[in-house]
Amino acid sequence: MKQGNIGVTSENIFPVIKKFLYSDHEIFLRELVSNAVDACQKMKTLASVGEYKGETGDLKVNVAVDEKAGTLTVSDNGVGMTADEIDKYINQIAFSGAEEFLDKYKNDANAIIGHFGLGFYSAFMVSKEVEIFTKSYKDDAPAMHWSCKGDPNFEMEECDKAERGTSIVLHIDDDNKDFLKESKISELLNKYCKFLPVPVAFGKKKEWKDGKEVETSEDNIINDTNPAWTRKPSEMKDEDYDKFYRELFPYNEPPLFHIHLNVDYPFHLTGILYFPKVTNNIELQRNKIQLYCNQVFVTDSVEGIVPEFLTLLHGVIDSPDIPLNVSRSYLQSDANVKKISNHITKKVADSLSDIFKNNREEFEKKWDSLKIFISYGMLTDDKFYDKAKTFNLFKNTDGKYFTYDEYKTLVEPNQTDKDGNIIYLYTNDTEQQYSYIETAKNKGYDVLLFDGQLDMHLASRLEQKNEKTRYVRVDADTIDKLILKEQPEAVKLEENDRLNLTEVFASQCPKNDKMEFLVSMEALGENNLPVMITQNEFMRRMKEMSASQGGMMSFYGTLPDSYNLVVNTDHEIVKALLAKEKADCADKIAPVDAAIADLKKQIADLNEAHKDKKSEEIPEAEKEQLRNLNNDLAAKENEKKQVLADFAAGEDSVRQLIDLAMLANNMLKGEALGRFVRRSVEFIKK
Ligand code: ADP
Ligand code: MG
């Protein structure tokens, strides 16, 4: 019998394994099963190159739990190990610079195991003792038994073992009894070993007999050794891809498209990515890409390995070239990972482009479910943007789809303003903005439908990337100003009348801290509505962005929503209202106006006299006089406002017109709506 010390250069690794690797204990099973798979594959290789002349038999891995004995056994009929090989591969562990590294990665078992090649030793995370029974394929090598109780000492001796291969027996420690449960092991095998390339048996298949579940003699193979992504794309039909998707995500809706990745140079990468039907909640879509390394499951959180927007895709990536056993921060800076990530982005863009070119009808049909994914990509990845801009589609309110270029060609002739900007009109709500859409269409304009979560963000990006391009919501202004082609017709009102009428309407606008109204007069033609409400594009977007981003933008968030109340001076109701205002108020306003004019003149005269003087040269009495004059002026102006407000309050039509405009924008709610309805009934009675 041989006894010895495990060849760790600086320290006893066992406390380390137990103490530090508490987070991912379960991966020991992956490590042991993949070692067994490796041993089987080496056997196959040796046979195929003629180095081994005997029968390999059916190469297979067996996993068994014995809850009573407290053991978990992983066995294989692979190459096995000679005594020398055990010495070399198991007993000698290179283990330098350990402490520093361990401290850094103490929560990342993957990193530690990978760094030290501790795959086998991960068994000690869950075991109080580990035994190896192994017989090499080499004819003259005796079978060996190795055991170790989780301290630096091991024992090794010859033993009886007739068949070629290795059995690793774990004596599970008391803290990890979970791993003796069949259901637990079954779950872990399903998670980590589902697609390993060598059959893995876990017990026997069961069947129902006379109302009872009984074991059959057939092995219960838990894996698919030839998963879809390892096959040649040319051998795969659409059904095969769909079937594989169901295997991965049994509860998901069928995907829209798939991409089969198959790269040999400059790195190895295979995989299948599916475009899911994206639901409104994009967060639910994430973490559906599984990362494999030679068919061994590694992780299903691929952030840092693929660009963020691609994490919305579902499927499998398999690459031996992604350094899996390292920390995430290392991954993100790894050059290979960057290359792979760029490659995947390119492949995804190319295949979308192909589908678009070869089957546009299909592409359009799926567009609505695909859109958010593509927008997300264009917003977060410039390389993807450049490719996607050729197949990113616009949908208009008639349900027609256009590429950016197609749409530009369509609207350029009619929707270019006097400064050469192409104005893309959009709505985010066809019901709410119905009348504005109609008005725009009657003018020969086209209106886009931007009802997606990211549409506005993408519109801002398109404005940045394309010169002379503006996106304007249909209700951002009155129709002639929406796309300003020439100076709009001047309002044919005397200045005083314009100011008074403005005051009449301003006095009756809703007053609260959520909305703010700016009243203006425009000549919109006698057939247009008498009063309209618009919302400035810039201000609205700032508010929307502040709602979604906060931070710097939160200043805008504190402002009330600002609206324009546009009064159409061409409309007969407005004309009549102005006439009535003049008739009713002239007598009251005339003396106030005269007083105002007088005060203004006195103020102007005083200011003129003080023009060239320094403050200290002006007599205190004159300063006092100026202050009084200004106060008087403000009082008089208020008096005038009050006259106009009293007039407006007595004219139900003013409130009625404002309420109608609000109603058209779905802004009339609650008490205001109730008052409007009652007032309307009174109007009908008249
Ligand atoms: P790695 O798999 O990265 O080489 P491990 O610690 O998992 O590191 O295994 C160390 C070595 O032990 C393997 O390279 C292999 O030579 C040997 N070994 C482990 N398990 C088996 C097995 N089931 N059959 C044959 N050799 C094995
Ligand atoms: Mg290993």
From TrEMBL:
Entry keyword annotation includes ATP-binding: yes
CDD domains associated with the record: HATPase_Hsp90-like (cd16927)
InterPro entries reported for this sequence: HATPase_C_sf, Heat_shock_protein_90_CS, Hsp90_fam, Hsp90_N, Ribosomal_Su5_D2-typ_SF
Superkingdom of origin organism: Bacteria
NCBIfam families xrefs: PRK05218.1 (NF003555)
Record-stated family: Belongs to the heat shock protein 90 family.
Protein name per Swiss-Prot or TrEMBL: Chaperone protein HtpG
